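Title: Prediction job returns without error message
Component: structure pipeline
Severity: low
Priority: P3
Assignee: unassigned

Description:
Job completed but the reporter wants confirmation the result is attached to the right record. Sequence as submitted:
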Amino acid sequence: MKKEMIEIDSPSLRTEILRIIIPPLMAMVLFVIAVFGVALPDFRRNLMDQKMKMITAVTQNAWNILAYYDQQMKNGLMTSQEAQNRAIEQIRQMRYGPKEKDYFWINDLQPRMIMHPYRADLEGKDISGFSDPEGKHLFMEFVAVVNKDGAGYVPYLWQWQDDPTRIVPKRSYVKLFSPWGWIIGTGVYVDDVQNESTAMLKTMTTISIGILVIIILLSLYIIRSGMKEMKRRQHAEQELQQHQAHLEELVEKRTYELKEALSRVRVLSGFLPICASCKKIRDDSGYWNQIESYIRKHSYAEFTHGICPECAEKLYPELLDDE
């Protein structure tokens, strides 16, 4: 019976475990999909958009410096050469970004490099033939963009800040300062976005792992508690079935014994013709039988003989007198 009980409850045990495990696992899967499939890509896109807006804003600030010195020149407060030199030196010193290494450069429409804080070797040189490792003539692209729209974004490969040995993807914003025919620009390194995304990815991964560990521990605790409860319930059901089986055995045994007893019982019923004088009984065949013979024949009763006091006084008075 115990083996049968386990076989019957094993599917229910598996069902109970699955019922406990599946909801948190599904929640975790949905969480991972939401984070890595939706939130993280959106974070990267939003981060890049913010970077683009940021370099647009800081380029406008640098452009305003050119406009300021141009106005100073127009007001006769300084010569054209002096205004341009002061603007160049002020913009050369401008830095921004987490490590204050992001910078601005200036080239003209020829294009010729006017100022670059990390590539002084290019200043004053024709850079129309300058290309990145992929063969893109980036400065010609800058000229084309500002001639068309006055400002815009250009992707290309460039050295990492002040490290000429490290060439990485970069996306720059360039804006034309028409009075001087200068293009001022700055850029954002794609690696910065990727690094911040990677940092976010690590953070979200750590959080996800932490949540997963908590879910696993809670699931194990719930499963353990559920299994204990199921074992107690199974044990109670086993005991109940054993008691029921024992009761059925007792009932069967008592029923059998009762049937056996009833099979040995003969009951005299109905009207029995009996002689009013000798007390003989007439059977179905019309014969008269002694009462004890008739009862012994039709039941399991047995007789022993004796004499009651009244009959003894009547039949054997001499015995009573001797006493």
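Comment from assignee: result matches the submitted record. Residues 190-264 form the longest helix (75 residues).
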